[in-house]
Amino acid sequence: MAPDIKAYLARKRAAVDKALEALVPPATTFPPVVFEAMRYSLFAGGKRVRPILAVASAEALGAGTAGLLPIACALELIHTYSLIHDDLPAMDNDDFRRGRPTCHKVYGEATAILAGDGLLNMAFEVLADQKRLKAVPARRMLDIISVIAQASGVFGMVGGQIVDMQSEGKDVDIPTLEYIHTHKTGALIRASVRVGALYAKANEKRLKALTRYGEYAGLAFQIADDILDITGTQEQIGKDAGSDLKKGKKTFPGFYGIEESRRRAREVAERAIASLREFDRKADPLRELAKYIVTRVN
Fold it and tell me: Looking at residues 272-287, what average pLDDT do you find?
């Protein structure tokens, strides 16, 4: 019997949130404004999909995941930094995120930039903390850090974001759209799954299978986001609905329409699930997560 994915997500999210609370200094830490801004965005009600994917990936290989939580939290720190910076006026210029005003709307642009910088660097402080991660061999930890750094940088999120901004209001082709999706959003999702596999000492065959799963899951996630931008309400998606269309962004519905985009999202999610064909029931949370990604309403 497949796991109840909503209960699974709630349980894992609670564990991630507890670990994040222990990692991130309180808002009263000096200088307080930057810690307050960091925590404002970090604890704004995110789904914690990326850390949960890392945990589910390790569980699929039968590994215990208590020692993985700091690494999973680092993924969420990086994801939140990227959202703060994406929302800035110089980038996507969004007023709302996760149902409340964006970081720069509350704290100003300069503080928001520094809060994002703080979260990004804190992630690597956590990843380099030998005491906290003493159970992970140094060589494996370096591999994990390398995967996360690449996914966060110019060959991942940064590259996807710059092409996304350059493409606004322009006619772009499908390969460019897929580049944006697989880098701006997909790279960190793929890395999250891969990190869980590396932590669990996956052999080469299983690492490749889980990496494929992460690639397909990341693309499905972004197609679903494109659809929600059109079909969702501000209350559902936590930000201005229709913002992609207003900014002239190219999306899957813009190329294919809503129904064909839904079909493609389901198809990509099915490919993600098919990547796990040689895994047993321990990979069921990953299978259910792939389904959840394309059926979610926020």
Answer: 97
Helical axes 204-231 vs 186-199, angle rounded to 10°: 150
- Cβ–Cβ under 8 Å, residues 158 and 152: yes
Provide the pLDDT confidence category of residue 46 given band limits of 50, 70 and 90: confident
Domains, the chain, ordered by start: 5-295 (1.10.600.10)
Pairs from 98-101 (Cβ < 8 Å, separation ≥ 24)? 98/44, 98/45, 98/46, 98/238, 98/239, 99/44, 99/45, 99/235, 99/238, 99/239, 100/44, 100/238
Q: What is the mean pLDDT of residues 215-222?
A: 95
Longest dimension (CA), the chain: 51
In this prediction, residue 190 has a pLDDT band, given cuts at 50, 70 and 90, of very high
pTM higher than 0.70, yes or no? yes
State the residue for tokens 């309400």: 233
Q: Which has the closest alpha carbon to 41: 22, 55, 27?
A: 27
236 pLDDT exceeds 60? no
CA distances from 39 to 48, 86, 172, 239 (A): 15, 17, 37, 19
Q: What is the mean pLDDT of residues 265-291?
A: 96
Phi then psi for residue 183, to 5 deg, are -105, -50
**What is d(CA 221, CA 215) in angstroms, rounded to the nearest whole number?**
10
Q: Determine the Cα–Cα distance for residues 218 and 50; give it in Å rounded to an integer.
A: 10
C-alpha of 2 from chain center: 24
